[in-house]
Amino acid sequence: MAWITLLIAGLLEVVWAFAMKQSDGFTRPWPTAVTIVTMIASFALLSLAMRSLPLGTAYTVWTGIGAVGAFLVGIVWLGEAVTPARLAAAILIVAGLVTMKLSGPA
């Protein structure tokens, strides 16, 4: 259950990062509100996952999901560049996440 909680926390990190971008420096009320609510929910779920997962594993996976997710959202919805170096970096992050999952507790 901790891994599912951590996955949801990571996905919420993607949502708040995107909403923060859309908030235009916290000048737009709705994206700002979405940022704050999803940020709190993401942190709360991360803290719940950390009850049974090691700190290093939970935090690395959470930030990795957020980083790769934000990267994909940037490409798909914001028209950000797709370059071989950026793709390689994302693949390395995913490889690190898989390694963390396989090397930690179930």
Automatic annotation (TrEMBL):
Entries under Pfam families matching the protein: Multi_Drug_Res
SUPFAM superfamilies the record matches: Multidrug resistance efflux transporter EmrE
Membrane topology: Multi-pass membrane protein
Gene3D superfamilies linked to this entry: 1.10.3730.20
Subcellular localization: Cell membrane
Membrane-spanning intervals of the chain: 33-50, 57-79, 85-104
Keywords for this protein: Cell membrane, Membrane, Transmembrane, Transmembrane helix, Transport
InterPro entries, sorted: EmrE-like, Small_drug/metabolite_transptr, Small_multidrug_res
Family according to the record: Belongs to the drug/metabolite transporter (DMT) superfamily. Small multidrug resistance (SMR) (TC 2.A.7.1) family. Gdx/SugE subfamily.
Protein name: Guanidinium exporter
Source organism of this protein record: Methylobacterium aerolatum
